[in-house]
Structures are given as C-alpha cells and as structure tokens.
Amino acid sequence: MLKEQLEKELPQILLTSVQNIIHGNHVKGKELTLDHSAVFPFKLTVTIDWNFILKWNNEWIAGGKPAAVHSGKDLNHFEAIHENHVDDATNNKIRRLDFINDYKNAGSRGLVYNQNKTIHEYPTHSYQYHCDQCRGHGEYNCSNCTGSGKKQCNHCWGTGQVQETYTEYNYSNRNYEQRLRYVSCGHCHGGGRTTCYNCSGSGRQQCSTCSGYGYFTYYRSSYLVAIPYNQYSVNCQKHAQELIDYLSECNHEHLYQQIYFNGFNYELNGQSYERFTYYGDSFITEIFANLRSTQHHIVGYSNPPLPFIRSGIFDQLFIEEITALEQYQDTGKKISKEKALKFFNEFSRQPVLERSLRGVAKHRTSTSQDHTAMIQELCSYFITQLSAQRLSNGINAILDKVSPAYSGIVWSIAAFIYFISAGIYIEYLFETSVINGVWSLILEIISFLFFTLLYYCLYSIVTFLLSVAVCTYKSRNVPTEFRQKIRNKEPFFTTAFAGSFLVIMMGVYGYTAYNKTWLPHAGPTLLNFLFKSASYIIPDQLVHKYCQRDNTYSYYSNEKLICRSKYFVDMNQFSDRTYFIMDPKSRIQTFLRNDNPEIIVDGKIGPKTKEAIIKYFEKRNISYNKNWSYNQIAVQMEIANREY
After folding, report:
1. pLDDT surpassing 50 at residue 254
2. What is the spatial distance between Cα 465 and Cα 217, in angstroms, rounded to a whole number?
3. Per-residue confidence at 524, pLDDT binned at 50, 70, 90?
4. Is 552 in the same domain as 507?
5. What are the Cα distances from residue 319, in Å, to 197, 297, 324, 336, 461?
6. Which contiguous run of DSSP H or E holds residue 505?
7. Do strands 125-130 and 69-70 pair parallel, antiparallel, or not at all (unpaired)?
8. Which residues, 6 or more positions from 352, have their beta carbon under 8 angstroms from its beta carbon?
9. Does residue 538 share a domain with residue 567?
C-alpha cells in the first residue's frame, strides 16, 4: 500500500517542483506534463575510515628558552622524540578511546561529524643549534671597517689635511686676495681616520641573523589528528553511479537530512584507523515529462524528490535568445545599442533572465568575468553549461551597452591626447639630448615614465569624473538594480600600459634618431603638429641630395648643409606668434652661455646681452637683423646650433 502511494505521489511532487521553476519563462508551469514515471528504493552505505596520524608545527626563535622537553644540542635525541610521537599517534589505541566512544554514543548522527579533529596534544619539545652566520659568537667583524674600528675620514679622504681659504694683502697691487692653504683636518685631527660609526670603534657588530644570541632554539609542537576517509556505495535498480557521483559531493549534514539512516556499525579494521559504517534507505523517482512536444528526463532522490539528473529545459525555453546571441558571438559582431535595449527588455520579462541581469550587475567585477555558474544555479541546473555560457557572455554585452561601467571613448580620447603629447615630448627630448650608452637611456626612460604615470594619475581624476558622468547619462533610463558598478580601474590600467609602451617606443626612436643620421628627426615636426602656434619648431625642407652650397636659393635667409643632404629654413615664416615652449629670452641666454659663461639665464635682456647676441651671429658668419623679435632670434640660434 505504501509503495503504491509513493509511486503515485513522488512523481507528481517532482513534476510540480520543476513546473514552479520554469513558470513564467515563456511558458506556464502547467504546460510541462507527465508522460510516465517510476519509483524504486535504494540503499546507501557510507563508510568512514578514521585515520590517526601525527601533525606538527615547527618554529625557530633566536635565543629562545628551552621547552618542557628539551634535547640540548642533540639533534638525534630530538628526532627520536618525534619518532616516538609518530609511533604513538599511529598505534596507541588508548589515546583515541574517548574519541571512539563519543562517535558510538552519537549513533547515526555521528555521520555528520566527519571533519578533521585534534584529539591529543603532545608536549612541545626543542633543541638548540649554533648560528651559522656568527658561529655561535653572537657577533662578527664590522662590515663597515672590517674589524679595525676605524674608517677613512670623509672630509680629508684619509690625507689628514684639508684646504682652507684665507685673505692676504698683496702689497704690490695693494689689494686683498683670496688664497688657499692646507691645514690639519678638524674631523680626524690630522690622522686621516675616524671612529667607525657602525660599531662605535669596537670593530665588532651584532649578528643580525641571531640578534646577538649566537644560537637558535628549534621547537616542534605535535598533535594527534583524526582524519576521515569517506566511501559511498548505492544499491538500486538504476542510476546507481550517477547517484554516487552526486551524493559524494554533498556534505554529510545534507545526507543526514534527506536520507533516513537506520543504523551504524563499528569495526576494528587496522592499527592506524577505525571504521564506522552508516546505512540509509530512500527512494529514486524518475519521470519523463513533455513540454511542447519535447520530452525531458528528470531523476530525483529522497522524499520529497531532489533532482540529481536534469534535462536542459531552459535550453528549449531560451532557444530564441540563445540563437540570437550566437549570431553575434560566433561572428564577433558588436551588439548595437538598439539591439541591446531590445534584448534587455525581453530578458527583463523572464524571471530567470531578470534575476541573471540583477546578479551580473551586482557582482560583476571585470569585463570578461564569466557568470556561467551563477546562471546555472538560477536555472536550478536545468540548463546546459554551453547555453549558460552563451547567456553569460550575452548579458555582459547587453549591460555594457545599456548600463556601461565606464566610458571607453572618454578614456581612449583622454589617454590618446595625454600619451601622444608625452610621446612627442620624450621623442624630441631624446632626439636633442646627449645620452651616453644604453644603460643611461634605460634610466632616463624609467625616470620619465615614472613622472609620466604619476601625472597621469592626477590627469585621470578628470577622466574618471567625465566617464562617470557619461555612464550615468547612458544609464538614466535603466532601473537602479540593473546598473553596473563603476569600474574605471580597468580602463585606467589598460590605457596606462598601452601609453607606457608608446612612450618607451618614442623615447627609443628619439635616442636612435640622435645617434643614427639616416633616421628622420621627427621631434620638431611633431611638436609643430602638436602645439601649432606655441611650438618648439625648426621646419626643415629637404631640397637637394649633394654636399655643395647652392647660392641660387637666395630666397632663404639661412641654409645648413650636411653631406648628401641640404636643409633650408625660411625665416620669413616666423613672427611674434611663433613661441618656444620655454621663454625665448631665457633660450637666447642659454645659447649665449656656450660662448660666454658669464651670461646669466634670468630672462632679462640688457645691453650686455644684446652685445653678446651681435657677437654670437658675427662669430658664425650669420647676418643679424636688428628688427628680429626675441622669438626670431631664438629660432635663428636654434637653427645655428642644431646638428642635422
């Protein structure tokens, strides 16, 4: 009678639970109907072998005190104690007696308590050994003075004498003159050596390895731990292996709640382990259901039945959405904003997809994050992994359109402007600077890159705010629970990495252009393109390919020749609207200092500086026009000093 009742009730309970899961997702739950079913009992046997082993923790302390059990400096005695503990943990049944009795008293409930358990703690034992660094002395020769206690004086560099300036009256020209003389060094009193600051003159310093103790104390704390090893077996007509695979992944609390365990058995099976066997009984319910002419096979266990074999019902229900998403994912096309809104509205009307949208919006932390497991769980696993993955990728793409986490356009434009400017600047800087060797180049690039990224962090504050504003505007029509969290960290690091690569490449190009004459000098041209009227420009025009002065080009006020290349610069194109990045007056003074070190770079042009300008051009056989502005003078000086 009971069997007939269960065969009638359990399939209907399982069917109803599945109907509730799919209801509202393109179908009504009642559309899933039962074709036929079967109910049969099964027996579950859970065997727990409790293994008893020794676990231990080691600790080293410089100058530590001996433990309760101490072996002095005898390592063999220390290891012998450990071996005794290992043997005791494995073979001493008295130590585990209380543990076994507790499990016996728990009855079938003991199945639940299958976690590792420490049942005995052995006394900590120790031994001592010398520090290898100082050989047990606790100190060694000072590394700063090599044990002498004295160091070369840094003021006189070991000579014992230093230069001193004094004033003396010169009777021949009746002037006071500054002269130099050597006097005894006041820091080392003429000895050339001072007391070593590191060891205070002792020549010895404390051993940093053992903190001056000269020895270490090695401690070992040991524990007797019971570790369970679980085995499962099922006796039933069908689906035994599938059920074992499923139940072995469940915790024992779940098994105890869902399966009736009617007894256990304890047996002595070995010296190092004890065996408990638990016996349970329940039912397997198998149904074949029909949904719109498609049959689905579902199998559950326990009463009420819990599915452990599921069909892809949601694959059938969401076939249109999955097929539409496949067209984009398989071809690599981007989903348009209009199409994304259409998907979003359609997904919002399906309970499972609506919860998926909420979950992704709430928990998404990266652009490529996979939500397959979450979608499978929301579908109660009535969906295949491939379909769940399709939906995961599709939901990511949809939310990026209707509720973006950052504005890629804002970050791209801002980063492009910043790093192109930085790249052009470093290219010009390295193209016009003397850098000695590859290592100097690397250090210069690292230094420049550090400050570039530092300023980019400050620059990105504005980009961050603009990105947030754009995202907020785009998400204005989307309910709050479907809006993604702002993730500006992603584009920041992406643009910083790409921009750093650009800056490095531009720096290498500038260095190469300086050292290789065959490589075009791009710096002035790029700066002219970047800054327009406020630029550091030397516009060059390649006219001929031979090394000979050609006076037919008298239209040009200046020309500079190199072997096989001839460059002309038209001074008429420069005016007061042409500026250097730095103050042109300071730039003029910088050039003048090459001939006259007395010129001070202060941005002020006085009579002395004007006279130096005339001499500068006369020395280089360049005609000087007094009507030139300071900008034109600076440009002409740049032309005269530039190496092509």
Report:
1. yes
2. 57
3. low
4. no
5. 80, 18, 8, 21, 44
6. helix 489-515
7. parallel
8. 25, 314, 378, 379
9. yes
SS3 assignment for 376-400? HHHCCCCCCHHHHHHHHHHHHHHHH
Measured distance CA(456)–CA(492) in Å, rounded: 9
Q: Residue by residue, what is the 3-state secondary structure of 443-489?
A: HHHHHHHHHHHHHHHHHHHHHHHHHHHHHHHHCCCCCHHHCCCCCCH
In a domain, residue 548? The reply is: yes
Give a yes or no: residue 464 inside a domain.
yes
- For residues 392 and 372, is the Cβ–Cβ distance under 8 A? yes
Final residue of a structural domain among 379, 402, 425: 402
Q: Which alpha helices (H) appear in 227-350, and where do they start and end?
A: 240-247, 252-258, 313-317, 319-331, 337-348
Task: Report whether 78 contacts 252 (CB < 8 A).
Answer: no
Tell me if 264 is assigned to some domain.
no
pLDDT band for position 186 (cuts 50, 70, 90): confident
Do 292 and 321 share a domain, yes or no? no
Secondary structure (H, E, C), 516-545: CCCCCCCHHHHHHHHHCCECCCCCCEEEEC
* pLDDT value, residue 530: 55
In this structure, are residues 536 and 549 in contact, taking their beta carbons and an 8 Å threshold? no
Look up the pTM and report it. Answer: 0.66
Angle between helices 630-641 and 584-592 (to 10 degrees): 40
In this structure, are 162 and 196 located in the same domain? yes
Verify that 321 and 375 share a domain, yes or no: yes
- The answer to whether 415 and 492 are in contact (CB under 8 A) is no
| Position 23 pLDDT exceeds 50 | yes
Closest CA to 348 of 336, 356, 337: 356
Q: Using the 3D structure, point to which of 161, 179, 206 is the last residue of a domain.
A: 206
According to the 3-state scheme, what is the secondary structure of 177-218? Answer: EEEEEEEECCCCCCCCEEECCCCCCCCEEECCCCCCCCEEEE
Same domain, 319 and 305: no
Compute the mean pLDDT over every residue in the chain, rounded to the nearest whole number.
84
pLDDT in tens, 255-281: 999 999 998 999 876 667 889 999 999
Domain extent at residue 593: 532-641
Angle between helices 489-515 and 437-474 (to 10 degrees): 150
- The tokens for 504 are 């490095």
pLDDT at 351 over 90: yes
Number of domains forming the structure of the chain: 5
